[in-house]
Amino acid sequence: MNSVNHALALRIDELLKKKKMTRYRLAMNSGLTHSTLKNIIHETVKDNLLSTTILIASGFDMTVSEFLDSPLFKEENLNI
Q1: Is the Cβ–Cβ distance between 65 and 73 less than 8 Å?
Q2: C-alpha 37, offset from chain centre
Q3: Cα 3–chain centre separation
Q4: Partner of 55 at 20 to 30 A CA spacing, among 4, 16, 41, 77?
């Protein structure tokens, strides 16, 4: 089981690879600072806000629903 923060980091890495995108490009596209994105990926942020997740999804040119449409975010796979 993953924490929500770990699932978020895994999903970002998965999409970065799939879309052949750098972290820097994602930060630029989403409006987040590179350091904020780095902290999310390295799981040093304790609680990620939904607004941050929406910005990340937007940076991938996805809706938040599309971003969260992954087995990583199914309740049975999360330690909440």
Answers
A1: no
A2: 8
A3: 13
A4: 77
pLDDT-derived band of residue 2, with 50, 70 and 90 as boundaries? confident
Q: What's the CA gap between 26 and 30, in Å, rounded?
A: 6
| Secondary structure tally for the chain: helices H, strands E | 5, 0
Question: Which of 26, 14, 25 minimizes the C-alpha distance to 56?
Answer: 26
Q: Which single residue is written with the structure tokens 């993953």?
A: 2
Q: What is the pLDDT of residues 19-75, one digit of tens each?
A: 999 999 999 999 999 999 999 999 998 888 899 999 999 999 999 999 999 999 999
Give the separation between CA 19 and CA 80, rounded to whole angstroms: 29
